[in-house]
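seq/struct pair 1
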Amino acid sequence: MKKIYITTALLFITIGLIAQKTEYRYGAVKFLLIHNYSIPLASNANVLFDTPKGDMIKTRGSVLNYVPGFAFSYNYNLDAKNDKWGLVLGLEVQNNGYQSSYKTTNPENTYRATDRYRTTAIGLPIYLKLGDRNIYRNQSYAIVGFQYNYYLYVQNVNTANWTTQRFSRLLAGEEKRGSGVSFFLGYNYNIYNVQLEYWFTNYVNRKYIVPVEGTNAAHYAQTNFSNNIFIKTGINIPMTRWLTAQNWRAEQIRRFFKRG
């Protein structure tokens, strides 16, 4: 599966780089920030706190948890000649994360901990761009599409207020999913881009069983790491003369290097 995925990605990049660029066929690059707002479950009976007072069930410490991320992508645009719609094929690298904050209270103290998972993934987005007129010249259009994500690795980081130590590890092969699919909606205006993305599945394997002292515990069965929604904001830059046509200074720089 990995060989097929890598071969497809390399073939796509090659076609995009050598293809003749016009206002209907051109490449663009995106630089995006990812804003993930995850809401943990009220409690997780499958995972306990190992506190100074013994094991305690986790309860939700914060309703909303924000974790930033980033993404970079190359996108090849195939615009219709009526300038009202187009098809885009892309290759994306992203680093994205989710976090849950927990607490538990006893008569003497309140213990708090965070449980964060972060993945680095390669994605293949495919989407439609829809506008009323001149989508190339105006760069103003709505987008709707899907993305296949291949998870390279997943890191788990735990912190707690009763210790200064920070626990970090990479999830084993069986603990994480190999790939998943997401759906997204968005809008592009000029060089500015915003997307609302929904992941049908995530990179944590909720069916993974952890043997603990002769018993089997479904460690991730009650996690909130699936069916998540997050926002991407950033810039989308066409790799054509469109950019210099919008800015005289950029056009001067282009002409300077062309003469050299």
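seq/struct pair 2
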Amino acid sequence: MNFNQIRRLFIFVILSFCFVGFASAQSWIKKLRSPVFYEIGIQTAWQSNAFNASVGEVEYTATAPEYLGGVTTVSSPELVGLAKIRYEPRLWRGYKSKVRASIFVHHFTEFSIKDFRSMSFNFEQNIGNYQSILLSFRNLPEFYLRNYLSKNATTGIASREKCLFMEQTYTIGYAHRPFKKHRFSYELERQNVVYNAAFSQYDIGIYSMNLDWDWSKFKTLPISASLQYGKAFNLNEIDIVDRSYDNVNGRIKASLRLDLGGLESVSGKLGLDTRQYFSGDENDEIHAGRSHQEYRLEWDVNFAWDSSIKAKIYGGSRYRNVEAINVNIEDFKSFERWWLGLRLSYDFVWNVY
């Protein structure tokens, strides 16, 4: 099944739920009668390494700003604006439908070339007996990585060019509760990563299978975990380089709900991402024999007042260790990064009924 077929199936499933629901005896207005919850906010953070640059690159950039597109530092304050919508009508047989949408706009004060925005849409349709159908879409319209060397196919001359990509992700899944206080969800995911013309040979598609588990036996200590297995493949044949790989990613998260004078909860999350490239071509120095392990740590402290005003202090770190045939590639692709931030947001509801 190709990408366009997946997209058509995705749209068809959503429209089918709406059509079946609206075709029943209940009126459209009654089915749509549900408040709309909004959240708007702003957050500021310090990003230690927004370019995911290696140690050597960080030192080199300080004296050669052209290397990363004219910047002399990889660290920067970050400002983020956000908006979220939550809507829960009953579109199908009186069961609750959950609609979630969000948009984030990121701005880096030290280098606006890194600014980007992202959007997401999630739809969950309850079908009874603690079962649900899941659909989601995420879109990253444009993201600047950095300047990389690109060789002109006509002249053979190499120069440093901007490397950008866009990313779209579709998922379809099923969730149920086979045991009390245990919720499992299973998703199939398709992701497309498409680069600008100078780097279009790197276009990649990824099929993934996702497993999520939520355990809520103790209301004050919910725990969740996720596992993802994916296979990536070349989207075109501009060159003969094999950029395909397998990836296995895992996460585990625990939260402690406190509700102490505005202090609502504290949570922490650990993650491990692994990737193994398939290329066996010794002339392919970038991918041949290459693998990596990336360790992630994230935490947040949440506050809430009057059910409307919320604050979050958050932070995290990433460390990627790369192994490759070429030692220079190991150094070039390995990096460390950390961040620390504060989010302020306001919730409000629109209920015309």
